[in-house]
Amino acid sequence: MGVRASMSISLMVENKLWGLISCHNYGSEARVSLPVRELCRSLGETCSTHIEKLLYSARIKVRKPLSAAPKKTSPTAFINASSSDLLNMFDADFGFLAIKGEARTIGKLTAYNEAIALLQYIRQRSFTQIFATQNVKKDCPTIDFPTGFSVLSGMLVVPLALDGIDFLVFFRKSKSKEIFWAGNPHEKDLKVGQNAYLEPRSSFKRWSEQVVGTSREWTEDQAALTTSPLPSTPLSHYPFPEMLRPEGQKSKFNVLIAEDNPLNSRLLETRLVKRGHNVRVTVDGQACADAFMRDPGGFDVVLMDLQMPLVDGSASTRLIRAFEAEAHTKIQTESPPNRIPIIALRALMAGF
């Protein structure tokens, strides 16, 4: 193609190659001086920083409905009352919340027969890890649906139980799109067949391709809003929170949870309630500290998510400890202050 020289500038985001600025020279020989190369490197770093900043801003914007949601005891109530926010967070058309064999619609149900077929497929597969696809025809070939899928193409399955029976699923409709390539991407296949080795493309002229039968891709940020993959180890193998119980004390605890992710809090609440514990769920660190201060003797243990918007787990713990110290000072006793156990949580612990 007549390229005499080339130079590239890498765009790095989160220590990964996000993009590349490629410069070609078609004329006579030319050398790029060291000051110009340093200027280009600085330009690439500046662009990378701004791209990373924009990505973080988008993630924070997506998570705002969680932090601004009204305080509810049950995450299921949050999902039912905030279905539009939930669909916007995942950029989905509609979905289902399946608990104990029953399914509730999230949003306005469309393509009823296709949605029911996919719902039955998910129940048969019993996913124990997050599953995402933008092409159900390709990635789920064993679905028994003879008429085929003409409306729905994208699916995101979020398991809420270790056995995969309880789950949250989001659907996306098919959307045709036009992809532009720098040259015909299929041209190299012909060259391989003829010459048994790859050759440089003859042209980078823009080439378009029409893609149908797929939905928008599920992004990494949307997957990060869900719970982590659940382990296959039975829950009964983990003595939690009974491991905190001194001998002779009660086996039923009043648990205060601070968790901004409704899927994680749903899983925690369900498991603890099944073990006979009383559970109170708060959606951020400030709400957790306020709940404890209103009734300091009403809780036996606090499960605290470390990473929450506004007031995080560390700040909430400091508020609780300061309140305990102040209350102990007012009592004027020489005995050590009563300190409620506070256990730090991460998303990975949602599968305990």
UniProtKB/TrEMBL annotation:
The keyword Membrane does not apply. Pfam families: PHY, Response_reg. PROSITE patterns: PHYTOCHROME_2, RESPONSE_REGULATORY. The modification 4-aspartylphosphate is found at residue 305. Residues 1-45 form the Phytochrome chromophore attachment site domain. It comes from the Eukaryota. Residues 254-352 form the Response regulatory domain. This is Putative Cyanobacterial phytochrome B.
